[in-house]
Protein backbone atom coordinates (compact mmCIF):
# COMPACT_ATOMS: atom_id res chain seq x y z
CA UNK A 1 0.00 0.00 0.00
CA UNK A 2 1.27 3.44 -0.88
CA UNK A 3 1.95 6.17 1.67
CA UNK A 4 0.25 8.64 -0.59
CA UNK A 5 -3.37 9.71 -0.40
CA UNK A 6 -3.35 11.08 -3.94
CA UNK A 7 -0.87 10.53 -6.77
CA UNK A 8 -1.30 12.43 -10.00
CA UNK A 9 1.06 11.79 -12.89
CA UNK A 10 1.28 13.72 -16.13
CA UNK A 11 -2.42 14.56 -15.99
CA UNK A 12 -3.77 16.52 -18.93
CA UNK A 13 -7.17 17.91 -19.77
CA UNK A 14 -8.25 19.46 -23.02
CA UNK A 15 -11.83 20.78 -23.07
CA UNK A 16 -13.23 20.38 -26.56
CA UNK A 17 -14.29 23.56 -28.29
CA UNK A 18 -17.87 24.09 -29.36
CA UNK A 19 -19.33 26.54 -31.85
CA UNK A 20 -16.98 29.49 -32.05
CA UNK A 21 -15.09 28.69 -28.86
CA UNK A 22 -11.75 26.94 -29.44
CA UNK A 23 -10.55 23.97 -27.42
CA UNK A 24 -8.98 24.80 -24.08
CA UNK A 25 -5.94 23.09 -22.62
CA UNK A 26 -6.75 23.26 -18.91
CA UNK A 27 -4.06 20.88 -17.58
CA UNK A 28 -0.73 20.49 -19.32
CA UNK A 29 0.60 17.35 -17.63
CA UNK A 30 0.59 17.93 -13.90
CA UNK A 31 2.29 15.80 -11.22
CA UNK A 32 1.15 15.98 -7.62
CA UNK A 33 1.90 13.72 -4.69
CA UNK A 34 -0.22 14.26 -1.60
CA UNK A 35 0.97 12.19 1.37
CA UNK A 36 -1.51 10.50 3.70
CA UNK A 37 -2.28 12.64 6.73
CA UNK A 38 -1.24 15.90 5.15
CA UNK A 39 -3.05 19.20 5.01
CA UNK A 40 -2.36 20.15 1.42
CA UNK A 41 -3.06 23.49 -0.22
CA UNK A 42 -3.62 23.81 -3.96
CA UNK A 43 -3.26 27.45 -4.85
CA UNK A 44 -3.61 29.28 -8.11
CA UNK A 45 -5.25 32.27 -9.77
CA UNK A 46 -8.59 32.08 -11.57
CA UNK A 47 -8.58 29.59 -14.42
CA UNK A 48 -5.34 27.92 -13.30
CA UNK A 49 -6.85 24.42 -13.40
CA UNK A 50 -7.61 23.75 -9.73
CA UNK A 51 -11.27 22.84 -10.17
CA UNK A 52 -10.49 20.77 -13.25
CA UNK A 53 -8.01 18.72 -11.18
CA UNK A 54 -10.51 18.27 -8.36
CA UNK A 55 -13.35 17.45 -10.72
CA UNK A 56 -11.24 14.77 -12.40
CA UNK A 57 -10.60 13.24 -8.96
CA UNK A 58 -14.32 13.46 -8.21
CA UNK A 59 -15.18 11.67 -11.45
CA UNK A 60 -17.11 14.70 -12.72
CA UNK A 61 -14.69 15.53 -15.54
CA UNK A 62 -12.90 12.98 -17.74
CA UNK A 63 -9.15 13.37 -17.99
CA UNK A 64 -7.56 13.52 -21.44
CA UNK A 65 -4.42 11.58 -20.47
CA UNK A 66 -2.21 10.72 -17.51
CA UNK A 67 -3.07 8.90 -14.31
CA UNK A 68 -4.56 9.72 -10.94
CA UNK A 69 -4.71 7.41 -7.94
CA UNK A 70 -6.79 7.93 -4.83
CA UNK A 71 -5.64 5.92 -1.79
CA UNK A 72 -3.77 3.69 -4.26
CA UNK A 73 -6.77 3.11 -6.56
CA UNK A 74 -6.55 4.28 -10.15
CA UNK A 75 -9.55 6.50 -10.94
CA UNK A 76 -10.00 4.89 -14.38
CA UNK A 77 -9.31 1.23 -13.55
CA UNK A 78 -11.02 1.18 -10.13
CA UNK A 79 -13.37 4.19 -10.06
CA UNK A 80 -15.53 2.84 -7.23
CA UNK A 81 -12.65 2.11 -4.89
CA UNK A 82 -11.20 5.50 -5.74
CA UNK A 83 -14.51 7.25 -5.07
CA UNK A 84 -15.21 5.75 -1.64
CA UNK A 85 -11.88 7.04 -0.40
CA UNK A 86 -12.55 10.67 -1.15
CA UNK A 87 -15.15 13.22 -0.12
CA UNK A 88 -15.39 16.36 -2.20
CA UNK A 89 -16.92 19.67 -1.19
CA UNK A 90 -17.62 21.43 -4.49
CA UNK A 91 -17.18 25.11 -5.14
CA UNK A 92 -20.73 25.58 -6.37
CA UNK A 93 -23.53 25.45 -3.84
CA UNK A 94 -25.71 22.88 -5.57
CA UNK A 95 -28.77 21.74 -3.66
CA UNK A 96 -32.04 20.02 -3.97
CA UNK A 97 -33.94 22.83 -2.33
CA UNK A 98 -36.74 20.62 -1.02
CA UNK A 99 -34.58 18.21 0.95
CA UNK A 100 -33.89 18.94 4.58
CA UNK A 101 -30.27 18.66 5.75
CA UNK A 102 -31.10 15.36 7.49
CA UNK A 103 -32.69 13.92 4.35
CA UNK A 104 -29.79 15.09 2.23
CA UNK A 105 -27.24 13.30 4.38
CA UNK A 106 -29.38 10.17 4.54
CA UNK A 107 -29.78 10.07 0.74
CA UNK A 108 -26.07 10.61 0.25
CA UNK A 109 -25.22 7.85 2.75
CA UNK A 110 -27.61 5.57 0.89
CA UNK A 111 -25.85 6.35 -2.38
CA UNK A 112 -22.59 5.22 -0.85
CA UNK A 113 -24.22 2.08 0.55
CA UNK A 114 -23.61 3.04 4.19
CA UNK A 115 -25.88 0.73 6.26
CA UNK A 116 -28.46 2.54 8.42
CA UNK A 117 -26.80 1.32 11.64
CA UNK A 118 -23.50 2.93 10.59
CA UNK A 119 -24.83 6.29 9.51
CA UNK A 120 -23.54 9.34 11.34
CA UNK A 121 -26.19 11.84 10.31
CA UNK A 122 -26.76 13.42 13.74
CA UNK A 123 -23.06 13.45 14.59
CA UNK A 124 -22.24 15.18 11.31
CA UNK A 125 -25.04 17.73 11.68
CA UNK A 126 -23.80 18.57 15.16
CA UNK A 127 -20.21 18.80 13.98
CA UNK A 128 -21.10 21.43 11.38
CA UNK A 129 -23.43 23.24 13.81
CA UNK A 130 -26.58 22.45 11.85
CA UNK A 131 -28.34 20.08 14.22
CA UNK A 132 -31.00 22.69 14.98
CA UNK A 133 -31.64 23.02 11.23
CA UNK A 134 -31.81 19.26 10.64
CA UNK A 135 -35.43 19.40 9.49
CA UNK A 136 -35.53 22.80 7.81
CA UNK A 137 -35.78 23.14 4.04
CA UNK A 138 -32.26 23.41 2.63
CA UNK A 139 -33.29 26.40 0.56
CA UNK A 140 -33.93 28.33 3.80
CA UNK A 141 -30.30 27.94 4.89
CA UNK A 142 -27.84 30.80 4.59
CA UNK A 143 -24.85 30.53 2.22
CA UNK A 144 -22.53 29.65 5.08
CA UNK A 145 -24.89 26.99 6.42
CA UNK A 146 -25.15 25.46 2.93
CA UNK A 147 -21.38 25.28 2.72
CA UNK A 148 -21.18 23.53 6.09
CA UNK A 149 -23.89 21.14 4.99
CA UNK A 150 -21.83 20.29 1.91
CA UNK A 151 -18.90 19.41 4.16
CA UNK A 152 -21.13 17.09 6.17
CA UNK A 153 -22.42 15.60 2.91
CA UNK A 154 -18.88 14.92 1.71
CA UNK A 155 -18.13 13.08 4.96
CA UNK A 156 -21.11 10.68 5.15
CA UNK A 157 -19.06 7.69 4.00
CA UNK A 158 -16.17 8.64 6.34
CA UNK A 159 -13.61 8.99 3.54
CA UNK A 160 -9.94 9.19 4.54
CA UNK A 161 -9.51 12.20 2.20
CA UNK A 162 -11.56 15.39 2.23
CA UNK A 163 -11.16 17.85 -0.61
CA UNK A 164 -12.52 21.37 -0.23
CA UNK A 165 -12.73 23.46 -3.39
CA UNK A 166 -12.60 27.16 -2.44
CA UNK A 167 -14.56 26.53 0.75
CA UNK A 168 -14.41 30.06 2.10
CA UNK A 169 -15.33 32.02 -1.01
CA UNK A 170 -18.05 34.42 0.13
CA UNK A 171 -17.98 33.18 3.72
CA UNK A 172 -17.68 35.68 6.56
CA UNK A 173 -14.77 35.66 8.98
CA UNK A 174 -16.60 34.13 11.92
CA UNK A 175 -17.88 31.28 9.85
CA UNK A 176 -14.51 30.80 8.23
CA UNK A 177 -12.99 30.38 11.68
CA UNK A 178 -15.65 27.79 12.57
CA UNK A 179 -15.12 25.95 9.30
CA UNK A 180 -11.40 25.73 9.83
CA UNK A 181 -11.88 24.58 13.38
CA UNK A 182 -13.87 21.63 12.11
CA UNK A 183 -11.46 20.92 9.28
CA UNK A 184 -8.56 20.98 11.76
CA UNK A 185 -10.45 18.58 13.99
CA UNK A 186 -10.98 16.18 11.07
CA UNK A 187 -7.31 16.47 10.23
CA UNK A 188 -6.30 15.78 13.83
CA UNK A 189 -8.42 12.64 13.70
CA UNK A 190 -6.44 11.44 10.68
CA UNK A 191 -8.30 12.76 7.62
CA UNK A 192 -6.07 13.92 4.79
CA UNK A 193 -7.21 17.40 3.78
CA UNK A 194 -6.77 19.02 0.39
CA UNK A 195 -8.03 22.53 -0.11
CA UNK A 196 -7.96 24.93 -2.99
CA UNK A 197 -7.92 28.60 -2.21
CA UNK A 198 -7.09 32.02 -3.54
CA UNK A 199 -6.20 33.14 -0.04
CA UNK A 200 -2.52 32.80 0.64
CA UNK A 201 -2.82 33.48 4.36
CA UNK A 202 -5.34 30.71 4.62
CA UNK A 203 -3.02 28.19 2.97
CA UNK A 204 -0.11 29.51 5.00
CA UNK A 205 -1.98 29.10 8.26
CA UNK A 206 -3.54 25.72 7.61
CA UNK A 207 -1.45 23.74 5.15
CA UNK A 208 1.77 21.82 5.73
CA UNK A 209 2.45 21.66 1.99
CA UNK A 210 1.52 24.11 -0.75
CA UNK A 211 1.38 23.52 -4.49
CA UNK A 212 0.92 26.47 -6.80
CA UNK A 213 -0.70 25.83 -10.14
CA UNK A 214 -0.84 28.29 -13.00
CA UNK A 215 -1.97 27.97 -16.62
CA UNK A 216 -2.44 24.23 -16.11
CA UNK A 217 1.07 23.61 -14.73
CA UNK A 218 2.42 23.04 -11.25
CA UNK A 219 4.91 25.85 -10.74
CA UNK A 220 5.93 24.89 -7.21
CA UNK A 221 5.13 22.23 -4.63
CA UNK A 222 6.94 22.37 -1.34
CA UNK A 223 6.51 22.31 2.42
CA UNK A 224 4.95 25.58 3.58
CA UNK A 225 7.96 26.33 5.78
CA UNK A 226 10.32 25.99 2.84
CA UNK A 227 8.15 28.28 0.76
CA UNK A 228 8.08 30.81 3.58
CA UNK A 229 11.84 30.60 4.01
CA UNK A 230 12.14 32.19 0.59
CA UNK A 231 10.70 35.24 2.27
CA UNK A 232 13.97 36.49 3.58
CA UNK A 233 14.30 39.09 0.85
CA UNK A 234 14.01 42.69 1.78
CA UNK A 235 14.23 45.88 -0.24
CA UNK A 236 15.87 48.87 1.40
CA UNK A 237 15.00 52.25 -0.04
CA UNK A 238 17.53 54.91 0.81
CA UNK A 239 16.90 58.58 0.13
CA UNK A 240 20.08 60.63 -0.12
CA UNK A 241 20.70 64.36 0.09
CA UNK A 242 22.07 64.83 -3.42
CA UNK A 243 21.37 63.48 -6.86
CA UNK A 244 22.96 60.11 -7.76
CA UNK A 245 24.11 59.97 -11.39
CA UNK A 246 25.73 56.55 -11.48
CA UNK A 247 25.88 53.74 -8.99
CA UNK A 248 28.89 54.32 -6.69
CA UNK A 249 31.51 51.52 -6.78
CA UNK A 250 31.03 51.02 -3.01
CA UNK A 251 27.62 49.57 -3.83
CA UNK A 252 28.70 47.28 -6.66
CA UNK A 253 28.82 44.27 -4.31
CA UNK A 254 25.10 44.71 -3.58
CA UNK A 255 22.01 44.19 -5.67
CA UNK A 256 21.48 47.96 -5.92
CA UNK A 257 19.65 50.22 -8.35
CA UNK A 258 19.14 53.95 -8.70
CA UNK A 259 15.48 54.89 -8.33
CA UNK A 260 14.73 58.43 -9.38
CA UNK A 261 17.06 61.31 -8.75
CA UNK A 262 18.09 60.78 -5.15
CA UNK A 263 16.84 57.33 -4.26
CA UNK A 264 18.62 54.00 -4.09
CA UNK A 265 16.99 50.60 -3.84
CA UNK A 266 19.02 47.69 -2.46
CA UNK A 267 17.67 44.13 -2.42
CA UNK A 268 19.15 42.03 0.37
CA UNK A 269 18.55 38.57 1.80
CA UNK A 270 19.51 37.27 5.23
CA UNK A 271 22.62 35.60 3.88
CA UNK A 272 23.71 38.31 1.48
CA UNK A 273 24.08 41.38 3.68
CA UNK A 274 22.81 43.25 6.69
CA UNK A 275 21.05 46.61 6.63
CA UNK A 276 24.07 48.03 8.53
CA UNK A 277 26.49 46.92 5.80
CA UNK A 278 24.36 48.57 3.13
CA UNK A 279 24.11 51.84 5.03
CA UNK A 280 27.85 51.81 5.73
CA UNK A 281 28.55 51.36 2.01
CA UNK A 282 26.25 54.27 1.12
CA UNK A 283 28.01 56.50 3.62
CA UNK A 284 31.44 55.31 2.40
CA UNK A 285 30.36 56.48 -1.06
CA UNK A 286 30.06 59.97 0.42
CA UNK A 287 26.27 60.06 0.19
CA UNK A 288 24.27 61.76 2.89
CA UNK A 289 21.37 59.51 4.02
CA UNK A 290 18.21 61.56 4.66
CA UNK A 291 15.64 58.77 4.89
CA UNK A 292 15.35 55.00 4.82
CA UNK A 293 12.46 52.54 4.49
CA UNK A 294 12.14 48.82 3.87
CA UNK A 295 9.77 46.58 1.93
CA UNK A 296 9.49 42.98 3.12
CA UNK A 297 8.73 40.24 0.59
CA UNK A 298 5.70 38.23 1.61
CA UNK A 299 3.95 35.12 0.38
CA UNK A 300 1.89 37.30 -1.93
CA UNK A 301 5.07 38.41 -3.73
CA UNK A 302 6.27 34.83 -4.08
CA UNK A 303 2.89 33.85 -5.44
CA UNK A 304 2.99 36.69 -7.96
CA UNK A 305 6.55 35.85 -8.93
CA UNK A 306 5.68 32.22 -9.50
CA UNK A 307 2.48 32.87 -11.38
CA UNK A 308 3.78 35.77 -13.45
CA UNK A 309 3.77 34.68 -17.04
CA UNK A 310 3.50 36.42 -20.39
CA UNK A 311 0.72 34.02 -21.35
CA UNK A 312 -2.67 35.64 -21.00
CA UNK A 313 -5.17 33.52 -19.09
CA UNK A 314 -8.15 32.72 -21.29
N1 LIG B 1 -16.35 22.85 -19.18
C1 LIG B 1 -15.38 23.60 -19.66
N2 LIG B 1 -15.28 23.84 -20.99
C2 LIG B 1 -14.28 24.59 -21.50
N3 LIG B 1 -13.32 25.17 -20.77
C3 LIG B 1 -13.36 24.98 -19.45
C4 LIG B 1 -14.39 24.20 -18.82
N4 LIG B 1 -14.16 24.20 -17.48
C5 LIG B 1 -13.05 24.94 -17.28
N5 LIG B 1 -12.57 25.41 -18.46
C6 LIG B 1 -11.38 26.24 -18.65
O1 LIG B 1 -10.25 25.52 -18.17
C7 LIG B 1 -9.35 26.40 -17.47
C8 LIG B 1 -9.17 25.92 -16.05
O2 LIG B 1 -10.38 26.12 -15.34
P1 LIG B 1 -10.58 25.68 -13.81
O3 LIG B 1 -12.02 25.91 -13.48
O4 LIG B 1 -10.04 24.32 -13.61
O5 LIG B 1 -9.67 26.74 -13.06
P2 LIG B 1 -9.59 27.11 -11.52
O6 LIG B 1 -8.15 27.16 -11.17
O7 LIG B 1 -10.45 26.19 -10.73
O8 LIG B 1 -10.20 28.56 -11.50
P3 LIG B 1 -11.21 29.24 -10.44
O9 LIG B 1 -10.41 29.55 -9.25
O10 LIG B 1 -11.68 30.45 -11.17
O11 LIG B 1 -12.30 28.23 -10.19
C9 LIG B 1 -9.96 27.79 -17.58
O12 LIG B 1 -9.37 28.46 -18.66
C10 LIG B 1 -11.42 27.52 -17.84
O13 LIG B 1 -11.99 28.56 -18.58
From TrEMBL:
Keyword Nucleus tagged: no
Pfam family, one: ABC_tran
Domain ABC transporter residues, every copy: 6-240
Protein name: ABC transporter ATP-binding protein
SUPFAM superfamilies xrefs: P-loop containing nucleoside triphosphate hydrolases (SSF52540)
Keywords: ATP-binding, Nucleotide-binding, Transport
GO MF, any single term: ATP hydrolysis activity
Coiled coil: none
Species: Kordiimonas sediminis
Xref: InterPro entries: AAA+_ATPase, ABC_transporter-like_ATP-bd, ABC_transporter-like_CS, ABC_transporter_ATP-binding, P-loop_NTPase
